[in-house]
Amino acid sequence: MGTGTRLGRVRGLGSARAGTHHWLNQRVTAVGNLILVIWLVVSALRLPGLDHEMVVNWLAQPLVAVPMILMLINVFYHLRLGLQVVIEDYVHDDALKFGAILLLNFYAIGAAALGIFAVARIAFTGGAA
Amino acid sequence: MARPQSRPLSPHLSIWKWGPHMLVSILHRVTGVGLAIVGALGLVWWLFAAASGPDAYARFIACATSIPGYIVMIGLTWAFTEHLFSGLRHFVLDTGAGYELKTNKAWAVFIPIGSVMATAAIWLYIFMGSI
Question: Does B47 contact A at CB distance below 8 Å?
């Protein structure tokens, strides 16, 4: 952080004008995933079965629906950050890179919305009849 | 790009002797991409099928419990544990610790072994429970 204006040094962003925030959020969501995905795996393994009725009744509970929605947000945020770095590393053509990151954003937000809607529907209706 | 060919490049992939830390590094990325696409879509498919009703859910279960379905689920379990363990290693490395050659190598060797063992343990638990 030896170069740049004083304001630039305080902001700590460097010449790319981004990076620290991305890096930090990758770690924050990694900790979130550590907790939430292990919660999902352990909960799923502890369920007596994974038939429709059992899963829907399980997901309809507030203390399952909320962590599941948080997990979806966290997982898709984390994978959006991670895949962005992969694209930036391997796609060198500016137009392709722009398009790939655009698609990545659509994928992450769209799939997360689909998952959150599914959980909300189960939670608010007690599952489809 | 008009770049003179004669200029030296900094040391790159091909000149290094492969070590466990390099394997763990690239596996972290590969498993991350796999989880991000196959794992995340599988999760959303499961939730969406559950929300769509018993018929859609039955179709999901039929796919998931087919032979290819089990291969994908076991693969995702391994990818998750591998990514989880090497992610924990990254947390340690982020603090500036664990770069001593022997320590670094020991953890890099443990991670793929540990992830295979954890995957085996999880699936043994599932198959034993279903008998």
Answer: yes
Give Cα separations from B38 to A70, A111, B72, B90, B93 (angstroms). Answer: 20, 12, 8, 23, 28
Interface of B with A in 74-113 (CB under 8 A): 80, 84, 87-88, 90-91, 94
Cβ within 8 Å, pair B53-A128: yes
Which of A20, A50, A73 is the best mutation test for B, with the most CBs of B within 10 A? A50
Determine the pLDDT at residue B12: 73
Domain range spanning residue B122? 20-130
pTM of the model: 0.88
pLDDT at position A25 is 95
**Per-residue pLDDT tens for B14-26?**
777 888 999 999 9
CA atoms within 13 A on the CB side of B30: 10
Instruction: Write the ipTM.
Output: 0.88
pLDDT confidence band for A21 (50 / 70 / 90): confident
The total domain count for chain B is 1
Say if the Cβ atoms of A45 and B122 lie within 8 Å.
yes
Instruction: Return the residue of B nearest to A87 by Cα.
Output: B33
Q: Which residues of B touch A122 (CB under 8 A)?
A: 47, 50-51
Q: What's the fold here for domain A6-125?
A: 3 helical TM bundles of succinate and fumarate reductases (1.20.1300)
Q: What residues in B contact A28, CB-CB < 8 Å?
A: none
Q: How do the domains of chain A map onto residue ranges?
A: 6-125
